[in-house]
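Side project, low priority. Logging it here so it doesn't get lost.
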Amino acid sequence: MSDTENGAPEETTVTPGPDGNAESRGSGDTDKAAAVAALAAAIRTVGKQSAGPAPQASPAAPTGGPDATPSPGTAPSPEAPAAARPSPVRAGTDEQRTQALKDTAEVLAAGGAPTDLATAAVAAFGDGAAEQLRADPWAVLTLPGVRPEHADGFARGLLGPAAGPGDPRRAQALVPWLLEQAALRGHSAVEIGEVTAGLGRLGLPDTAAALQAAMDDGRTLPFQEELTGAEAHAAGGGEEDDEPPTRMLLALERLALAEDSLAEGLVQLMSTFVPGEDVPEGEDQPEDEDVPEGEHPSEGEGGPDDEDVPADGGPAGEAADGAADEPASDEHDATGHGAEPPAAPGPAAWEAAAVAATSSSATALIRAAAENALVTHTGGEAARAEPAALVRAATGLGLRAWAATWTHQGRDSLAALAEGPLQVATLAELLAGTAGPGRSPDGTLALDVLVVLDAPLLDVELAATLLESLADGTRLVLSGDPGQLWSAGPGRFFADLMAAKVCPSVASRTPDFGPIGELVSGVGIGELQPVETPDKEVVILTAKDGAEAVHRAVQLLTDSIPRALGIPAEQVVLLTPGHGGPAGTRALNAAAKARLNPGPGRFAGFDPGDRVVDSPAPGITRPARVLDGDATGLHLEYADGARRTVPPAEAGRLRHGWALTVHQAVGRRWPGAVVVLPEDAGAALTRQWVYTAFGRGERHLSVVHAAGPALPQAVAERPAQPRTTRLRAVLAENAAQVH
């Protein structure tokens, strides 16, 4: 696991150095610059047409996702990075796979690479992995953890002196690798100048040719984007007679298609939405054939039957016994025609539901959802009651309404906020079909209203998958706290949607109360002010260095907080910016284990009683406790009570879980939280990070920091780590064409 917060390997940035130049310069730099400028001019003439039409198919619906409950022996995994390689031919038998692994290991060994990479290579390239690596040694760069210097060494081991820095195969591998590294840092696109600088630092002699080759084979797509607002002003635009300033972007094909598909899906929802109409008193609802396209029949006056869906949004196993596993009946087909007329409440019904809401913010949200297919909702933890009120109101109107959360804990806490039964599942359960309304015969989710909480955590690929799962005309409400960290994956979906201003947005006026809420609210506006804490809800301690910070944090976890506040250690989490360093998760977890559960690590480095986190994919973290271990694997009990055996082959994705990075903690809260800031944390700190970290504690927050002035400076001056994306511009353009 990387030492950095977002999982990106260190020293892989594609941005230029402080002087804006590559590390080495030669007499040919002028020619290189001219070649890149000519390439940019060519892209400018092609414009957005180079990407081709928007895709009709989105990424396949995931079988896992945030808080997905895998079946025994399986686990969701992130998609492998896209690359212009032959599609892997899967081994048909165990014997073929064994032989493929053996052959691949021999090739890796011949090039001086670790044979442990054989499994990943066969997974990426199929049973022809050995031949693929011999033909193109730099293909090894697509495997996890491999860097350019490793790939160069492997190529020299196989090819000898023929493996030069200007080899076309090396050039074609480096461009997508740089874009993949940028994606790990959240970028869905990168400016062409930054990619060029990155290639120069890697010693590529002809960067323009490498860029052209990468675009020709389809692994990367070029885009010209017109700058607006502050970006345009910074670029020197703004005069009426001037050409609008533009920038040249490169994007991995999968991310470019995801953003295009996402923008198209959002516009499709808005353009196909047909609001209901009031029916004059004494008249019946319209017959089925008059139902507007996109509307669907209700499954009952109060939503799905109670025996099909647990009223409290229970475990996936309970929900799976209901609608999710039942095929669509003959009475309700994909077109919405059924034995009963569809629910299409008119303005009067929606207004009555809005007026009945218990808060003015909930009333505003219900009114916005009544009139629009797409709505954004912002607010803190207390504001989550408003989306819950909307789901209950829509269900009461006869609509099939569901809420989706990022984690099981978020699901259960949302159900507790609702004033009555609430239909809620995690987003992973909803998309996988293990909970929720199930799917219609056409493959779309069988619902009329979907409220997605924790929306800032959706990356562009997951968001595109979600949009492809919704039928035309479905009401979609995206709710989240804009001050919190963005997704672990690439993009900033929720922020870009808000910035594009293509749909109504409802800002909650419900504050988060208490000293922690007051502190976090101040951080959100760039102020780090002391707060009154009569019951020691907030404690801030300083430390001289990382070692002292670890000592103080573990003392708080194991003694001070349980003794003074009555919060047991298992309900307290330690949070820190990264995994490495003197006060990273590794150091904190080692110290916590030594105090709370010392042992030799009998089972793959773990002992019964250890707190662990299962991370099947970036952005997905499931806390658990080790029950035992044997030859079949580690037996875990997860925070939601589910149990699973992790096979030995998958044990490598487990980490001790007393301490987490803040990205691992998003979507969850603990009764107590201890935020640890070592002396080297300054570069990782932003207002967004501090806001998210401080908000993880429900009853108590301790801050142990040796970061000095870096903490208040980050809150005041660094709102967030910048991300380059295309979604805002694409969405604005598509929406303008519709209107």
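Brief comment: The CA atoms of residues 76 and 652 lie 14 Å apart.
Revisit when time allows.
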